[in-house]
Design brief:
Order of helices and strands: HHHHHH
Radius of gyration: 21 Å
Number of helices: 6
Structural class: mainly alpha
Strand content: under 5%
Distance between the termini: 46 Å
Number of domains: 2
Number of strands: 0
Largest sheet: none
Oligomer: single chain
């Protein structure tokens, strides 16, 4: 049940955050050149998707919590089925939260390319379960594809970093 409550709280925070970011996107400058598809178009599309997914996850967690409060949570041995099958790993959760905050701050200093690869390597190490080759290769390939999509297809600029990381970013995009 603790896992459901943590999921519920986190999803509620994501939903509230998406609403806040929607309101922030409303304040983006308007460019007459683009008329209908302005600078806030893609962020709002993504925020709508995040909001819809958050609502679905909230509904799932609320339904599961209601079912557990109705007495459906006890198994045949009298133990809590959800606690026996899955518990919250607070260490991993806190480490991943700190890692996300470090990624946010690292984007400014390391730039998108290096910060994203480093974040994914560390996240895969914290989460575990990935094979060594996949844990090394996947972040590089995924970040490269993201950079190509953002820079070439969407024509968006990405954080370039400072110092030597800025020069390295100029080499890639």
């Amino acid at each position: 049940m603790a896992k459901r409550i943590v999921d519920l709280l986190f999803t509620a925070m994501v939903f509230v955050g998406s609403i806040y970011l929607w309101l922030a996107a409303d304040k983006f400058p308007v460019f007459a050149k683009y008329k209908n598809v302005d600078s806030d178009f893609w962020p709002k599309i993504i925020l709508v998707c995040i909001g819809i997914l958050s609502i679905l996850i909230l509904y799932e967690n609320i339904a599961a919590l209601r079912a557990s409060f109705r007495g459906e949570r006890e198994g045949p041995s009298g133990c809590d089925r959800e606690t026996a099958s899955s518990s919250v790993n607070w260490t991993k959760m806190i480490l991943m939260g700190l890692l996300c905050i470090a990624y946010y701050w690292g984007l400014h200093f390391l730039g998108f390319f290096m910060a994203t690869i480093l974040f994914m390597w560390l996240a895969m190490a914290v989460i575990g379960g990935a094979k060594r080759v996949m844990a090394i290769v996947f972040p590089i390939v995924f970040t490269s594809v993201l950079a190509i999509v953002f820079v070439k297809l969407l024509e968006l600029s990405l954080p370039r970093g400072m110092g030597i990381f800025h020069e390295l970013s100029l080499f890639f995009y």
